[in-house]
Amino acid sequence: MLIGIDASRANKIRKTGTEWYSYYLIRNLAKIDKKNRYLLYSKEPLREGLKDLGKNFKSKVLSWPPKFLWTQARLSWEMIRFPPDLLFVPAHTIPLIHPKKTITTCHDIGFERFPEFYSLRELYYHRWAMRFAIKHASHIITVSEFTKREMLEIYKINPQKIVVVHNGFNKNVFRSTGDQKKIQETLIKYKIKKPYILYIGRLEEKKNTLGLVKAFKELRAKNSELKTLKLLLIGQFGFGYEKVEGAIQKFNLRDEIIRPGWIKEEDRLHLMSGASLFVFPSFYEGFGIPPLEAMACGVPVVASRAASIPEVVGDAAFSVNPQDPQEIAEGMRRVLEDKNLREDLINKGFKRVKEFSWERCAKETLKVLLEV
What we know:
14 helices, 2 domains, Rossmann fold, seven-stranded parallel beta sheet, alpha/beta, six-stranded parallel beta sheet, globular
């Protein structure tokens, strides 16, 4: 069977959640499946990591148009001319013209629950694309039971059409490391001093970055012994970031909150390993990979009890209400100061991450692809 895969997201340089999912899923499909043939569609020539995947993997560059309407125009045209036996789209935007057998992955439908966190253009496009995928895809993979429940409630679709396959995380990168030299070199590179709290994710309203800034202000104000603590926000700026920046300026935390932007995986490993605490206060997630990366590095986690996050972290994170900055602040304080609690969360985290891997994700995804 010839399986076509939209690799446009996997081929991006600056990857975030959906892009990493696409990238590692393709790489692990190549490891486990030597029988079926694969054709990867991309806007540009494939970068390192996606080249030379095996004799049964080939690629095709569809270079026009480079940005807008690539999926709906160029990929659709390719499906008319040379359709594969099955098309797999690792995000919910499938082309207008597609094979009868088409499978897509829905990562979350936050645009339905929190439309105020999206621009009008993003909102309309996401809603149209999701409804189009529901109507035309053979099956839909969701990355959590939570997202499946959300889709059943909002779209009233046949539950037999949805299959849950959990994400993984990169165990080859994110692991407990005692390499203090590398950690220190990375801290110097980004001009960071210990101790610090770490957050990784897009800096935007949906992720509750503003609530985290408020919680950090409360933590410092009520605990004089934590005055030297910094907050490190790693990620690209997203919708509503100007409110976050406004709060940082208003609270006079310009020097205490460090914002290096997007950084590569290896540096994230060392910054994760050097953190006193990882915090993930998001309002809405379809899965949420960063808490697993933190747990794998032996860093205690404070995470919101919202959306899919409890499903992912289990009992291996300290749970807080994302709507309450004071509760987030208190959760961070307890994990920072209670040694027994810290050790308990770290040990539970090591156990929890054993349940997730990209290889497992690829095996379960391949099973869905072959059963259509």
